[in-house]
Amino acid sequence: MQMIVPVIILLTMTAAKIKKVDIAESFCEGARDNLILAFELCPMLIFLMTAVSMFTGSGAADHISSAAAPLTERLGFPKECLPLALVRPISGSASLSLLDKLLSEVSPDSFAGRTASVMMGATETTLYTITLYYSSVKTRPDPKVFVCSFAADITGFIFAPLIVRLFFK
Amino acid sequence: MLEYLMLLLTASAVFFSVFTGNIDKLSQAALNGCGDAVSLCITLAGSMALWGGIMRIAEKCGITRMLTRLLSLPLSVLFKDLDDGKAMKLISLNTAANLLGLGNAATSAGLRAMSELKRTGNDSGKSAAVFILLNTASIQLIPVTVASLRQAHGSEAPWGIMLPTVITSLLALAAGLLTANILYMKGESENADDRSRNNPADDDSSKDQKGGHCRKLLRRRKG
User: Which residue out of A29, A32, A58 would a mutagenesis test of the B interface target, given it has the greatest number of B Cβ atoms within 10 Å?
Assistant: First the structure.
């Protein structure tokens, strides 16, 4: 699995040679667009990261996690991941910041670190996505849509530690 | 919504630090946080650019087209009630792009799919909900951002979470679909009752004019 990126690079370049696609030009096109994306992400990230930093640095995050710890530990959910679970459906940049903070405090290969990574990858910024799509067609979103999406998010959060435990005994 | 979150985070931070006497830590955290954000962006910029470049090559080789075609069959099962071919194609494209981690392509295809759904009056029913669900359940085969973040923090196996992530997103999607089926099952029979109560003469035409009925229903609701 660690070979995945080199293998994909190799496969893509081979396919490009076969299909006579210009590798250098296409690569630079895609890379440039994503660099611009990263650059555009930065201001909002600075804004949110500062707030998240203060939140975790002041001990507020720890207090909230510890308060809910008895319940979450019984469900097998690491308490460090609780702030991430709360923030994930609301803001992508805030969740990224929280994940970054979390991974600097616990090892990324620990149970909490892996669970947080899986949670981050398996769910999406629900509220933003729903708002984006419905506002583009000027329709008010059906409340049922929120319920379905939150059901998916919550399932993702519940199963993340279980699947991690399954894979990494 | 985001602004309320910011307000909440900042307020709780200030409150807690005063309460626990961590005021120095708080100001330190504020100044470190902005620097951390820039480092994070630089870390992510490299892997995002690499992935963007490789995926652009793959796109030009036709992988998105191939994946879109592969997905149209399983997706048509999810969208049994949708009889709009153009929307189905766009939804497949949107899902294919999401799978490959092509955010921009996914969003543009998704927005087009949404406006197509609106055009045929399907934007407030089960099909729209399932489409939104496919986007919010984030089925991404290769989580590049998370992996590069893990690598930056010294993980020995940053990609080890790839398969668990895919499995978890599929489970999340399944749960969302189940919820959608439950919520929209009752809804459809209620709509059918409403329709026959308000339009006894239209009962015969209801079977072959589904789109027209949705539009009539929407007009009645607005009026």
Answer: A58
Structure tokens belonging to residue A62:
């720890």
pLDDT per residue rounded down to tens, chain B (223 residues): 778 888 888 898 888 888 888 788 888 888 888 888 998 899 889 988 999 999 999 989 998 889 999 998 888 888 887 777 888 899 999 999 999 888 888 999 999 999 988 888 887 788 899 999 999 988 888 888 999 999 999 998 899 999 999 999 999 999 999 999 998 886 554 444 444 444 444 444 444 444 444 444 444 444 3
CA-based nearest distance A121→chain B, Å? 6
Indicate the SS3 state at residue B1: coil
Measured CA to CA, the distance from residue B56 to residue A27 in angstroms comes to: 6
Comparing CA positions, the residue from A45, A54, A133 lying closest to residue A92 is A45
Question: Quick one: angle between helices B23-60 and B144-152, nearest 10?
Answer: 130
Distance from CA of A6 to the nearest CA of B (A): 11
Residues 61-120 of A with CB under 8 A from B: 63, 87, 90-91, 94, 96-97, 99-100, 103-104, 107-109, 113-114, 117-120
- ipTM for the complex shown: 0.88
At B97-130, the pLDDT tens digits run: 999 888 888 999 999 999 988 888 887 788 899 9
Global pTM reads 0.81
Q: Please give the helix or strand (H or E) that residue A130 lies within, else none.
A: helix A126-136
**Which of B57, B123, B175 is facing A12, going by the closest CB pair?**
B57
Alpha-helix residue ranges (DSSP H) falling in chain B: 2-20, 23-60, 63-78, 85-99, 103-119, 126-136, 144-152, 162-198, 210-222
Residue of B88, B57, B56, B83 lying closest to B71 (CA atoms): B88
Q: What is the CA radius of gyration of chain B?
A: 23
CA–chain centroid gap for B63, Å, is 21
- Interface with chain A: mutation pick from B1, B2, B188, B191, highest number of A CBs within 10 Å: B2
**B100-136: string of b/e by CB count within 10 Å (b at 16+)?**
bbbeebbbebbbbbbbbbbebbbbbbbbbbbbbbbbb
The verdict on a CB contact (< 8 Å) between A53 and B2 is no
